[in-house]
Amino acid sequence: MYADTRSLLVSDIMSSPVVTAREDESVKSIAAKMKAHEVGGIVVVDKSNAPIGMITERDIVRRLLAGTKRTLFFAKARHVMSKPLLTITKEKKLEEAARYMADNKIKRLCVVDGNKKLIGIITESDITKNASYLIDVLNEMISTGYTREEGAEKQE
Fold first, then answer.
1. Which residues of 79-113 are buried (b: 16+ CB within 10 A; e: fewer)?
2. How many domains does one find in the chain?
3. Whole-prediction pTM
4. Where in the sequence is the domain holding 133, given as residue range(s)?
């Protein structure tokens, strides 16, 4: 039968440390960080390192360059960040993270510890890189006849 112990966890694929910014940091500075670190998004954190928002290249284009009165030179992270920010813990299974991202139509998911502090990030590309593993798990589930409904019935 399918063994839950074979599942990859969020902690197995997350990237850490995460490139971050404060909400009063300039968007110009954030764009420079994105370029320097070759990332498409930066997590905005508060003073306790809890994630409070995300800024992506798309956010900068949509909120600053496409019609707003603010300019790139004066805009701060708080003006363009997407919020609220969805998070997950490192103990969750990769399958759960992938479903959570798909259900919420997001490409990046912050990983937090029990105190809601940022410890990592997973992205769509992280999920894609591990897709072969997920396919193997699905094939094993199919070949053994294991389904979520059957597993739920057996627990009752």
1. bbbbeebebbbbebbbeebbebbeeeeeebbbbbe
2. 1
3. 0.75
4. 4-155
